[in-house]
Amino acid sequence: MQATETTHEAPSVSISERAAAQLKKIAQAERLEATGVRVAVQGGGCSGLTYKLAMETKEREGDKVYEQHGVKVFVDKKSVIYLVGTMLDFSDGLNGKGFTFSNPNAKKTCGCGTSFAA
């Protein structure tokens, strides 16, 4: 059995203060006992890979766990290689409202911005 790893190394995924504030609002609205977010990559989309973002209250076996701005970030081992250096932000501007990813590993992104190739 492999243990979950809480780490103090540089996070593979960083979250902005705006993203953390929005995640806390979501957790409060959903009455979750702890504020955490799972960031993952899965196959799909027109460029081959898509981001998956989900509220999470506890880590899973083998996760990398980082805490920023009072929010735990859970990343599974398969997703880490695609997410190193990624910033999760939240935009509430004229062009729409939602979470955005800035990923230096993305070699190509699709026109709608929901998938990427690494």
Structure description:
The chain contains two helices and ten strands. The protein is α/β, with parallel strands linked by helices and 118 residues long.
Summarize the structure.
The chain has 118 residues and is of the alpha/beta class.
CATH topology title: Hypothetical Protein Aq_1857, Chain: A
Distance between the termini: 30 Å
The CATH level-2 architecture is identified as Sandwich
Radius of gyration: 14 Å
Mean pLDDT score: 84
Number of helices: 2
CATH H-tier superfamily = HesB-like domain
- Give the tally of structural domains: 1
The percent of residues in helical segments reads: 10-25%
Number of strands: 10
**Elements, N to C (H/E):** EEHEEEEHEEEE
Portion in strands: 35-45%
- Helix and strand content put the structural class at alpha/beta
Unreliable parts: 1-5
The first-level CATH class is given as Mainly Beta
User: Major beta sheet, specifics?
Assistant: 7 strands, mixed
Write the layout of secondary structure elements.
Blueprint: E1 5-6, E2 13-15, H1 17-29, E3 36-43, E4 49-55, E5 64-68, E6 71-75, H2 77-83, E7 86-93, E8 96-102, E9 108-109, E10 115-117
Parallel strand pairs: 1-5, 2-7, 3-6
Antiparallel strand pairs: 3-4, 4-10, 5-6, 7-8, 9-10
